């Protein structure tokens, strides 16, 4: 059994990862400064004998020195996430993503700990070729558009992690998460599925941004966590970059209809111009689809949970946690 340290472990993906690792009998420590993470995400784990947590900034060297020295594997998820947050707080995004990852890698290197770094499909930028493969060229927008700060900061994280492997033989693995969805994801930062499901369950208008022809693929967090653990355990993953995501591509306007149908919602679907949703000059990504053959070849991994099932999992969680009204049985 191994001891995992998860930075950002009180966030959406981190809390699911902690749970899955505990189920497999591993020891888990999470560190999170609660900037976007929530204590409620791990509250149910606090009495588990193999679990412990620290509410702390990953830039705190004293605490991180101790936590990293005591673990076997670091999974670095702490980052500024969500397009809305990034557009609103570009300074915070750049500082957290670049300085935070640098601090984690330096500490991991001090104790020679295997480290997994979370990256993002945003690094493919506007892309040119579909589906996105790990070694494709990238095309980003200009620096005057705040959105691209996220992709750029994560690319720097990737360069740094690969450099630590090449120059110092620190065993690092990079995974690029495509749209990841499931229970506990918050709609506060703009994420589309919790927003649509919440709107559908409340009978409010479902807000499609732009004309809704932009596409995404949505992978259930339980599948994503399985992939991360597979990469953490496989010796040949080291020094490499892997896509993690679903390959079922869906236009956002079709997603709105699917959510409405699955949840039998009376909500109307409305179209909101990008400028109104994100402020003037926002650039969205028209298409985003991963090629997952690399991780499939290494681990035999592919997603197993359907989008329909995820929509119901999210809806159930929202109802159980009182975020939306629960319908009275007729
Ligand atoms: N979106 C939308 N309505 C919303 C929130 C998001 O139409 O209420 C769109 C958004 O413009 C994007 C897609 O849904 O095209 C996915 O957005 P999200 O923020 O979940 O992730 P992204 O892929 O942009 O990182």
What would your notes on this structure say?
- 41% of the residues lie in helices and 17% in strands.
- The protein has 330 residues and is an alpha/beta fold.
- The strands form 4 sheets. A 7-stranded parallel beta sheet has the order 3-2-1-4-5-6-11, with helices on both faces. It has a two-stranded parallel sheet with strand order 7-10. A two-stranded parallel sheet has the order 8-13.
- α7 (192-202) crosses α12.
- The protein is globular, with a radius of gyration of 19 Å.
- It starts with a strand and ends in a 10-residue tail after the last helix.
- The mean pLDDT is 94.
- It binds uridine-5'-diphosphate (UDP).
- Uridine-5'-diphosphate binds at residues 83, 179, 190-192, 195, 207-209, 214, 216, 252, 284.
Question: Which key features would you list for this structure?
Answer:
globular, 12 helices, 13 strands, 330 residues, 7-stranded parallel sheet, two-stranded parallel ribbon, alpha/beta
What is the topology?
Blueprint: E1 3-7, H1 12-23, E2 27-32, H2 40-43, E3 51-55, H3 61-70, E4 73-76, H4 83-88, H5 90-111, E5 114-120, H6 148-168, E6 172-177, E7 180-181, H7 192-202, E8 206-209, E9 215-217, E10 219-220, H8 221-233, E11 241-244, E12 249-251, H9 252-262, E13 269-272, H10 274-278, H11 293-299, H12 307-320
Helix pairs in contact: 1-8, 3-5, 5-6, 7-12
Bound molecules: uridine-5'-diphosphate (UDP).
Brief rundown of the structure:
The chain is an alpha/beta fold.
Regarding CATH, which class of the domain at 3-180 and 219-244? Alpha Beta
Here the CATH topology of the domain at 3-180 and 219-244 equals Rossmann fold
Shape: globular
Low-confidence stretches: none
Q: Could you tell me how far the N terminus lies from the C terminus, measured between alpha carbons in angstroms?
A: 49 Å
Structural class: alpha/beta
Order of helices and strands: EHEHEHEHHEHEEHEEEHEEHEHHH
The amount of helix comes to 40-55%
Task: List the bound ligands.
Answer: uridine-5'-diphosphate
Give the second-level CATH assignment, the architecture of the domain at 3-180 and 219-244.
3-Layer(aba) Sandwich
Average pLDDT metric: 94
- CA radius of gyration: 19 Å
């Amino acid at each position: 059994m191994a001891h995992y340290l998860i930075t950002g472990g009180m966030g959406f993906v981190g809390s699911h990862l902690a749970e899955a690792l505990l189920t497999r009998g591993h020891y888990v420590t999470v560190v999170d400064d609660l900037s976007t993470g929530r204590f409620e995400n791990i509250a149910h784990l606090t009495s588990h004998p193999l679990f412990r947590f620290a509410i702390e900034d990953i830039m705190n060297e004293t605490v991180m020195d101790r936590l990293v020295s005591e673990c076997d594997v670091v999974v670095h998820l702490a980052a500024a996430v969500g397009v809305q947050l990034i557009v609103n707080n570009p300074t915070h995004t750049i500082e957290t993503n670049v300085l935070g990852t640098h601090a984690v890698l330096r500490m991991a290197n001090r104790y020679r700990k295997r480290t997994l770094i979370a990256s993002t499909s945003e690094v493919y930028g506007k892309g040119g070729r579909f589906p996105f493969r790990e070694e494709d060229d990238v095309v980003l927008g200009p620096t005057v558009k705040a959105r691209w700060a996220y992709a750029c900061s994560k690319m720097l994280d990737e360069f740094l992690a690969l450099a630590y492997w090449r120059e110092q033989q620190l065993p690092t693995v990079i995974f690029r998460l495509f749209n990841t969805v499931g229970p506990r994801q918050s709609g506060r930062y703009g994420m589309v599925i919790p927003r649509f499901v919440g709107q559908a369950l409340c009978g409010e208008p479902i807000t499609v941004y732009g004309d809704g022809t932009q596409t995404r693929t949505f992978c259930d967090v339980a599948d994503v966590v399985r992939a991360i653990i597979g990469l953490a355990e496989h010796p040949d993953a080291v020094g490499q970059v892997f896509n993690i995501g679903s390959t079922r591509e869906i236009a956002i306007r079709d997603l709105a209809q699917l959510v409405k149908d699955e949840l039998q919602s009376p909500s109307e679907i409305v179209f909101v111009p990008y400028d109104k949703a994100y402020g003037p000059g926002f650039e969205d990504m028209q298409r985003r689809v991963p090629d997952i053959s690399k991780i499939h070849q290494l681990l035999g991994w592919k997603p197993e949970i359907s989008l329909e099932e995820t929509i119901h999992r999210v809806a159930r969680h929202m109802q159980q946690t009182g975020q939306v009204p629960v319908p009275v049985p007729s």
